[in-house]
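Notebook p. 47: complex prediction with nickel (II) ion.
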Amino acid sequence: MIREIVRMGDPRLQQVAREVEPEMFNTPELDALLQDMRETMRAQSGVGIAAPQIGVPLRVLVFGAEQSERYPEAPPIPYTELINPVLTPLDETMEEAWEGCLSLPGLLGIVPRYTRMRYAGFDPQGRYVVRDVEGFHARVVQHECDHLDGVLYPTRMRDMSRFGFADVLSPYLDS
Ligand code: NI
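Predicted complex, C-alpha cells below:
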C-alpha cells in the first residue's frame, strides 16, 4: 500500500527510531512494512526511504534504483532492504553533491557525505549483511540512516546558499 510521506516539520522526523527486535524478523508484519515502503518509494521515484518517513519509528530502510529519474547521472544501486543498520566510514574522504528527500518535496541542497562507507545490518529474515560501497550508493545509505536518528539533510549542509527548489536550481546544478 502506498503510504503518506511525513514531511519536514513533523516531529516524527526528529525522533530516534527503535531497533527491530529479533522476534519481528521473518514475520508478516515486517514484510508488510517493507512492501509499503517499497511501493511508496517507487510511487515517488525515490532512491530510498526510511520507516520514520511513513510514520513508523523503526530502524528499517529500503533503497535502490536501476536508473533514477531524480538522479539520471547516478550509477544503479541494487534494491536492498536493511534493518538495524550500522555505518562505518572507510576513510576520512568526503564529497559534496546535490541531494533531495521525499520529506522535503521539490527541494535540493549540496550535502557533504563520506565517499566510502561500510554498512552492516540484517535482511528481513534476520541474516547479517555487510557491504562496502562508495559514491552515490554510500551517499544514499548515509542519507537514509540519518532519518533513523531524526536528522534531515539541511542540518548537514555547510552552505545554505546552495539550498533551493529543484525547478529554480535546474540551470545551475552543474556548478
Ligand atoms: Ni530523505
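Notes: The chain has a mean pLDDT of 95. Residues 11-172 form a domain with the Peptide Deformylase fold (CATH 3.90.45.10).
Next step: compare against the earlier run before touching the bench.
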